[in-house]
Each structure stands twice: as C-alpha cells, then as structure tokens.
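Progress narrative, work stream C.
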Amino acid sequence: MTMRAILSNEPGGPASLVMGKVPVPEPVGTQIRIRVRAVGINYPDLLIIEDKYQFKPQRPFSPGAEVSGIVDALGPQASGFAVGDKVMAMAGWGGLADYVCVAADKCSLCPPEMPFDEAASFLMTYGTSYHALKDRARLAKGETLLVMGAAGGVGLAAVELGKALGARVVAAASSEAKLEVARAAGADETVLYPSQLPENERREGQKALTAAFKAACGADGASVIYDPVGGFYAESALRAIAWEGRYLVVGFPGGIPSIPLNLPLLKSCDICGVFWGAAIERDPEGHRKAVGELIELYRSGSIRPLIHSRFAFGEAADAIAMLATRGVTGKVVVTVE
C-alpha cells in the first residue's frame, strides 16, 4: 500500500520539494501510526531540507515535525493509546505525508474540543516556550520578561505563557502589526525594532535599541530575555538585562550573534541554551507532565494557538516558503485531506 508524501530528494529550499508516492510505514516497537490530519510548519522544517538542522535524515524524506491526527495502528510494544485516538505528536520529520509512525512517548492525547489545526500548532511552540520559561529560566511571578520575535510561533507562545506565569511581559517585534498581535495576546509593553540595519548604521542602531529595551523593561532591566531571533538584536537585548537575569537562546533566523563575554560578567547574568527536542528525549516523564499542564492552560483559555494561514497538502512547499519570509504571526498549518 502506498501513500502521498512531500519529499526532499536533495538539499534545497521549499522549491526543491516534490509530491511523491512511498510505502505506508509499519509501526515497530513502541511506535504508533498516525493518519495525519494537520501538520504545523516550523522553522526547523526549512532548515532540515537545506541540511542546516541538527538532524540530517537519509533522503528521500518528508519534512514535518509536528502533526495531529488519528491513531491508525500500534506497534507490538506500544502502550497508552488505542486505534481511533485523537493525538498530537512530535515526529521530528516525516509528518508531511498521509501516515507517519511516531514513538508513543512523543505522542499526546488531544482534548476532544481541540481542532486538528490547533493540535498541530501546539506542542512545538508551547512546549519550547514552557520548557524555556519554567525549566531553564525559572520565571517567577512579578518578574519582567522581554520576548523577542514576539509575534512568531514560539514568541507568541512565550508572551501568553509569560502572562500565565504571572510575569510582566515586554514584547518586541519588527512591525506595528506584529506588536498589535502581541498586545492582543497579553503583552504589557511593546518595542518596535528594525527588520534590518545596514552595516554602517549597526552600532548606532544597537545603541538606540538598547535604550528602547531599557525604557520598556524599567530601571532594573529584564529579568528574563526570550530570544528566538538572534542576529544583531541579541547584544542590544543583553545590554538591557537585569542583574542576575537569564538570557534564553532559542533560535537564530536573524543569524548567529557574537556576544561580548564581558556583558554576562558585568550583569552577573546567565546565558541559557534551550534545546527542547533534546530535553524531551532525556526526560520523557517531564515532557508528559508539561504537556498535561499546557493542556490545562488551553482548557482554561490562558493559551490558544493563533493560526496565520492554512494550506492544502499539495501546497506544503508554499507553506514552508511563507515561514521563510519571517512575516508570519502565529503558526502556518498544512491540512491533509
């Protein structure tokens, strides 16, 4: 039996992806097979097809790390799920297909009221941001949280979760439209930063941006900085951090920054890496507990994925290309008919 799949046959951008037919996978060990109904598109999907991600699967492969759907079959050692269950899962890759097999410990039952598109937009953004804020930064009630890229998938999740955890949230983004989205998600203050700066204006631009961050965060600075952007913004943000603050390194679509190490010394602050994918591998029980807490926040109305655009299965390459523009607010989803 064969199925449709969006395939990466060679390294390249979204235009290199093709629709193909491949055998339907059989679940082995603890895997469950999911009949895919929706796929959340994330920045790693762009990196993995360009061979720029931490993992490099053997080609041909399908991108698509985050899926929702219905359990279709169980591996011989799989437990905790039954055929017909509605689930969301972190596949790593392979999700842009009619079926995907995922280890049971990477799958979670969906609340019945959660639509498939929201379920496919839930785990990576909220899981990453919750791990970052709760486990890595130990964000406390009343602290000030500065969120860079605040209207993107993980950034918007960080705004919502920061408010749910009792922080004062300062949202930073590159357009007024994005800041309006962040304000709607609960941000208390906002900072507009330029989408780019010419090299000869960068030093003065960084100084002005630092001043804007300090003005928004207050005299004490930002207790926690959540940075999924990187690039030239990073140094400006770090200069606005509080004494013993925590700087969360989440991603680098703006480029990998070079940080002067005198800054952490002068602020006595911590620079914390956030690698959620590795964290759930090392602590699956902690992951299950965190997902349960996030689902309760969803049910209470404290968090809810914002879906920017939905694409049909045959338009998956266009969905990934849209994410590459950095103009997306919230999530991009591919539905699998």
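Work stream C, second folded protein:
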Amino acid sequence: MHVSRRTLSVAGLIAAALFSCVSLSIAADSETKAAAPKVASAVAGQDPVARVNGVAISALELARASKVMLAGQRGMTPSADQQKEFEMQALTQLVSAELLYQAGQKLEIKDLEKQIDDKLAQGRARFANAEDFAKAMKSMDMEEKDLRDYTRRDLIITNFIEKTIVPAVKVSEEDARKFYDQNPDKFTRPESVKASHILLGVDEKATAEEKKAAREKAEKLRKELAGGADFAELAKGNSTCPSSKQGGDLGYFSKGQMVPAFEKAAFALKPGEISDVVETQFGYHIIKLTEKKAAEKVDFKEVKPRIEDFLKNQKIGAAVSDYLAEARKTAKIELLLK
C-alpha cells in the first residue's frame, strides 16, 4: 500500500531536497525567493543545530528545510520572529524524521538502490531540461549526492511507516458512515449543466473591425441554427475552441467553473435551448444546453472509498505522532539552535 506523503505530516520535510520540494522552491515568487536566504543565513554553516541519539542535524539541513517551508508561504515576507518560528518548526520536523529514519534502518528494504535510482529518474523527468534541473539543485544548495541521500532517507522512513504503523490502522464501514452522516455539506453535488458551444474567438488585441466581423459571423451562425442547422456540424466547421472536434461539447460543469457571462447564459437555458450570441473575453459564443442536473446528495456507496482513504490517512498521521511521542521519551535529543 502506498502512503500519501501528505498524510505523513511529520515526515513532510524528510527529504527537503526531494524533487517535489526543489520544484516548489523554483516555483516560488520573487518575494518568497528574496526572503528565503534570510532564513538560511540565520543558520549558515555546517555546525550542528541538534543531535538525535548522537546523530547530528547540520545547520545546512535546517537551512534547506526552512527554505522549503518558506517556499510554501508564497508572497510572504516573514519578520525576524516568523523566520525564527519557521526554523523551529523545521527543526522539530527534522528531529522527528531522524527518529523515524533511525528506526527504519533496522528494517531491510529489497532493491533499495534500484528504488532510489527509479525515484531520481522520475524526479528528473519533471524538469523540462538539464538546465532547469541544475537551477533547482542550486536553489537548494545541493549536489546530486545530497539528493540521493535524501531520497534514501525518504524511502527508509516511508518503508518503516508502511511496515510497522499502517498495518495496525483500520477504518470500519461504521466509521465511514458516521463521517458521511456528520458532514452532509461535504457530499453534496452542486447543480450542473451539460452544454455545447460555438466560439468565434477574438484576440485581446483585435481591432474594432475584427471584433465586429466575428460578432456578425456569430449572428449569422445563430440564424442558421434557428433555421434548423445542425449545431455539432456548425461547431466542427466554425468554432475556434478545441471542443469543436467534439461538436462543441463541453461536458458537465457547475457554477464557478466558467466565466460569469458564459455561466449566466448557460444556466438560464432549458435543455434543448440555444442562447443568443454571448460575449466574453474569449470572443463570441453560441451555447446549446443539453442537460441540467439539480443539486443532489452524493450516495454513500459512491464516496465510501474516498472517505475510508481520508480517515485512514488521518489515523496514520495520528499513529505516527503517537509513535514519535513515545520515541522521544527514550531518545537523547539535544537542541543546539540559539
């Protein structure tokens, strides 16, 4: 069974330099990037910031973990106190990860090196080219050896949790049903419609004459539809939307998924009706409503697997926290960060 990384909250920074995290740092906006070095500079160097059963956690590891945490707060320019808080949160995560890693080393993992190779290959594939990969590595002050080490630790911790904690976690149908009954708002499917459209696209920089020509063509097509022309055929031959290949079919959508003017026109129609020409920032649309579905409560059987996964992930997170609480009682943990 695969355990979601999101579920393992305490292990979320196990591999602060794993590809998912490195990608996050690259994607962060300029404000976040500008702030990140301030966090790192507070603990620059190789001096230990903590020891767990005699194993040192270096300042560099903490700097990387702090940078990852800060990258998740896009647009935020932290104060000195907030930077310190990020560092302490990251250090707590790293201590937890070290405890799990030390326990995980006692378990054998078959083909560990191959698993590491596979995971690294998957990570590299997320980048468009070698230059982007190198830039990501540089942003985390890492070399490939570091990335391999972090990946090994991540796999060892995940294996430990899957082998020793996950098997004891159970979610009954009664648990799932109780959650379903107590959270009706989470299982309501909103009103939705199925529609098709013909789009006469207009570029944002189009001249008034070009816009007028597109509108006139849309009005002409609308008249053809009123005269009995086949909507799908006109869409295939005239619409500039990729949906033209499906005769303009957009499938089902609910409120909030389309631009306001389009949504208002679509939801105002009755099944089988065709709208007048509707203008949006994309151009001129003619909309045909195919079907309308009222809001409804989703059947328990349909959502049961998702509820069970959600509850199981919650229980796994709680079980990991319980394990760590016990492990800390007997572990020798020295916090050296000042």
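The radius of gyration is 27 Å. No further action is required on this item.
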